[in-house]
Amino acid sequence: MKILITGGAGFIGSHTAVALNEAGMIPVLIDNFSNSEKSALEGIKKITGKVFDFYEGDCNDIEFLRKVFSDHHIDGIIHFAASKAVGESVENPLKYYENNVGSIFTMIHVMREFNVKKLVFSSSCTVYGEPDYIPVDENAARKPANSPYGNTKAIAEDILSDLVKSGEDLQIISLRYFNPIGAHESGEIGELPSGVPSNLVPFITQTAIGKRSKLTIFGNDYNTQDGSNIRDFIHVVDLANAHIAALKYTQKKNGPFYDVFNIGTGRGNSVLELIKTFEKVNQLKLNYEIGPRRPGDTVKIYGDVSKANKLLNWKTEKSLEDALKDAWNWELKLAGSK
Ligand code: UD1
Q1: Residue 293, ligand 1, Cβ within 6 A
Q2: Is 149 part of the annotated catalytic residue set?
């Protein structure tokens, strides 16, 4: 199977390219480098020993997509390419609706033109907002989004679901990711946030290495065991493997369908627990302080992942410790290469 990965140089995209190769599938990568770097392609090459076809361009550019689809017989698409900074989406909503929703339209048009049926879409547990129960399963109500970013994921899910409902011959899976962290154990690929990271783990590793003076924990007065937020932190390699499982699932199914799956560990860890684990496994002290709550943060969420375990025949294999060791190893490699 030849699989198009949009956002192939990104954090999850690059790990998924490696996972596809391991599964005997052939990735074709596209990326516009809006939030990624060419070095990720080098990393993929180092790990796999292969150079995969790569195209630089934008998923909203239909002529660009037509060229890629003309050059290759694409059997399926994993659509990662999107903007993902929550704060920026509040300031510049149009960018988010154009990139994240607009690219769904171009992708579907090109899929129709080239008779491609399979699509795996990157959604987010953000669609649950503050869930009514945890672990949250796929039947839980989606809540009104608290940012344009979150809204783009809910809208994209609805568009894809409506297309299948209307009778389009498509096989579409939305994967609702919890919090991906870590890096490939080789240290050749990992997360490369541009500017000041807004996500927790890159901020931690950059603080530990001295790029940032200290980490601020956004609130320790929540109604949780230690007062900090609870998240479901999943190793990015486990998350990447879920995409392979999703593609295999489409191969087994006959006919059109749309479905959603939670992709997490099924465990909740607090922000403070994560920091303590990071310190312990890497034997260092992190400079951190407690600050005010970050507006819009969910208090506690982790996923019930039994649907993906059962139907996709997928499960996580790596621990929080593995992820935090790999994240630190990646930061050390980055520091060494500069
Ligand atoms: C956020 C988005 C989520 C999105 C994901 C993609 C919100 C509410 N959710 O997830 O929709 O899919 O990013 O990137 O923004 N934290 C600190 N200090 C920091 C950074 C983070 O204490 O410097 C805490 C946060 O308060 C949160 C946890 O760490 O409790 C995780 O934060 P983060 O990595 O930004 O992810 P989410 O907020 O869960």
Answers
A1: no
A2: yes
